[in-house]
Every structure is written in structure tokens, then in C-alpha cells.
Write a structure and sequence with these properties.
Layout lengths: L3 H7 L2 H13 L13 H17 L7 H14 L6 H12 L10 E7 L4 E7 L2 E3 L13 E3 L1 H8 L2 H7 L3 H11 L3 H31 L1 H8 L7 H23 L8 H38 L12 H13 L6 H10 L9 H6 L6 H5 L18 H18 L1 E3 L8 H9 L1 H11 L5 E3 L1 H6 L3 H12 L9 E15 L3 E12 L2
Antiparallel strand pairs: 1-2, 3-4, 5-8, 6-7, 7-8
Length: 501
Amino acid sequence: MLDKSLESTIEGIGKRHISIVPTCLIGTGADFGNLYPYARAICFTLLVKVFYQELYDDLLRSRDDLIDSVSKICSSFHLKYTSEECEKIVDSLLWSGSKKYTFAFEEQYFNDKSDKWETYQFQYFEIDRDISELELGVQIYKLSLDSQEIVLKSHELIEEMDISIQQFVAEMLIKKGNLKSALRMMDALDFRVRKLINNEKAHKEDLIRNPKKAIINNKSIWGKQLYEVKEQFKDELSRYSQMERILNKLDVLDDQRTIFLQLSHRIYKTRNLHDNLAKLVIENIGLELQILNNEFKLMWMSSSSSFRTTVWEDLILPDGLDDPDDIFMLIELILSPKKPFILPLEWGVSEQTLINVQDIFDNSIDNNKRHEINPITLDWESIINLWEPIFIELLKSRFVSIELIQNESETEYTKWLQNKEALDFWLSFCSTEDPLIITTNTLNETIDDRITLIRKLIEKNDLFKELFNKQIYTKQTPIGELLLRDKLKISKYTLLLKEVN
């Protein structure tokens, strides 16, 4: 019978053993010569240096770079050293014994769960495969999770903070002011969240079209109760709020102001994306429950309707079409059932380059005489002339609606209808959910046509320099559409201008 103190000691001792094993073995296993008394301190300092190299996106982390770092550390510590001793320090962290083993280091620890001794395998460094060029034999190293724990925190801190190593590193990236690296990390997070959102949207469509197949295929993905799903996303949302609070406390340098604003917006957008994902998942679970409870017959009934049989074979083939243009309407309904802008399909057809099929396969025709396909170029002069009054009104009133086109003179109104490239810019501004932030950096670095339009407007008229440090965002009028000349329907959008906070 164990006494109370020993029982508490044994409980969780396996995790405690694992947490100290990498620290206990650091700086051992080799003859370091004159550096032997200082080997542990040098090895730990090297881990800290590589940690900050990763934070600052420093790629000088090959084996030779690590050896050079050890020599610099020894110089900073006022120690005498040789290149061979520095090399042994680095190799003692890369390998233990043979280099062919997947796990370089191992040590025995007592597993209180299984009540027996087991072997713990670990590494101090891992190959950073994202930046290494393995085909050329160039290996760049990064800290393993165990090494990050050595640098950052103890076992108690891991348990009390309830925060993952990856989240803590992300917060360190922001705290240290290396905002570009944090921005790339948020980009990757956005990509994964958007992918999950698209998967959930596709699953919802499958539930409506073929509930039987969708529920059977998806039953293993979300097996949690509704309450657990809500709590999971609530916890993730608090993590985003935590990162945003840390960002607000930063003393940001002026030269990083643009990146700071982008990261602030990115954190806000990522949090909203995750919230949207939560709503989609909960809606899908609710829809599945509704189908299973109220429409159970859909689980065993097979669909007797399809486009091929119901539309094509039963309707079109026997009787044909009343007008050849009806095929365009049919294709539009199939390819774009819910597009926000209802544009004539003829516009898309007119963008295609027509080539005689006989000319392509006729070898007797000289290659120089074949039809050349030239890239489409924009008539910037006409576009600038049409958009200049739009932006003047935007600067004056802080908002401008697409309905302003109808209030133009008959001449200007006709120019808008004849210049579809200029109209397309309304789509460009309105088709993205992110506001367009206008700074000197974005004007010089981006290849966005919207930025090109603004840059050309500034070159023509200095008045538009007032757009600097402002953002353009859009708002859709929920009711009604704009009908141009009784043939072109466009959703009613408004461009709004406000200062960047």
C-alpha cells in the first residue's frame, strides 16, 4: 500500500521523466576536450540560438552553419576552442551513435500507465523539409518539439497553460515583432479553414441531392455530439481572441505598420472564418438529424430523376428548342445557377479567339502564317476616363453606388455599356470579401488590376493621393437589381471608403 505522497509522486511520473530526459542527455555522449565542462551550457545556448533563427526566418541552419554558431558562442563565452571540438558539440545534438537511425537518442523511463519501464526516443533537431534541398544534399535543420520544450517551458507550465507549442511559437512570432512570419502562418491557417468550409458546403449540397450517400460517407468524420462541437469551436475562437489581444499590446515600428494592419485584419478574418465553419458544421449535423428523423425514406429510396433523362431525353430530344438562343440560357442555368452578377453569356463567348480547325491540322500551311493568339490587353485610357468621376465621388461622399452609371449623361452611359472591361472592375471590387487597403507598398508590389487602376488614376490626377492609408470595401443592396438597357442585370453594389485604423 503506497502512502499518499508516494502515490501522488508516481501518478504522472512518466510524463515528468519524458520532459526531463532531453535536458538530462544534452551535452553528453562525446569527448569534447577543453569544452567538456561547458558542453551542456554550449548545447543549450545553441538550441536557443536556432529557436530565434526560426523566429526571424534565418535559413543559416545547416550542419556547417551550426558549427559556425558554436564557434561564435564559445567566443562570446570567452572559451578557447578548436574546430574539431565545435564539430563534436553539433554532432552530439544531431546523432547518438550511428547516423542511420530515425531517432537519434533514446532513454529508459517508467510508464506509470503500463506500470513498466519503456524506451523514449527523441531528437534535438529535425530536417526542415520546407526549405531543405534534399536532391542537392542541402539539409536545413529546425528544433524538434522536445527542443522547443527545453527552450520555452517546463512540464508544469505545459499542464497549467493548456496551450500547444505551435500556438506559443505563433505568439512569440508576434511578440518579437517578426510579423511577416506570423502573417504567413495565418495564411496557412486561412487556407486550411477555407478548405474545411468548402468541404462542409459540398457536404451540405450532397445532403440535399443524395442524403443517403452523403450521410453514409460522412458519418465517420463528425461523430461528436452537438454540444462537444460547439465547445470545440468556442475554445478555438478564444485562441484567436488571445492572439488578437497580444497583438494590440505590441509596440509596432513604423516600417512594419502595413504588415501589422494586415495581420490584425487577418486574425479577425480567420476568427470569422472559423466561426463560419462552426455554423456550417452545426447546420449540417442538424440537417442530418432532420433527415434521419423526418425523412428516413430518403435513406432507402433511389433517385429516379437526372438531367440526362428528365431534361435532355424527355424534353429536348423529342421536341427540340424553340430558339437557338435557348441553349445559351440552358448552359447558364447549369454552369452558373447562383452567380451574383448576371452577365450575358455572349460576353464570355466574345473573349474567345476563333481559329479554323483545318488550319491547325493542315501541315501545308507555314507556321508563320498560322493564326497567332495574342493576350487580351485593356484599354486603360477609356477605363481611366470612366472611373475617374467614380473615384472623385467616392472621395467626396465616402461612398458611391453602381446606380450612378444610370445618372450619367447619355454619352457616358453608352460608353459604360460599350466598355465591358470598365464594368468588370465593379465585379473586381465587389467579388472579394476583403477590403482593399491602399498604401505605397501595395501600389508598388501587387499585380492586382484594381491597384493598377488606382495607380494610373494617381498618375493622372494628384487628387487621388488622398486614397493612401484608406480602405475600399463593398456593401450589397439586398433588394433589387440594376437593369441596364433592358438586357444587362447587375446586383446593386456600393463602394465605401474609410480610414485605416
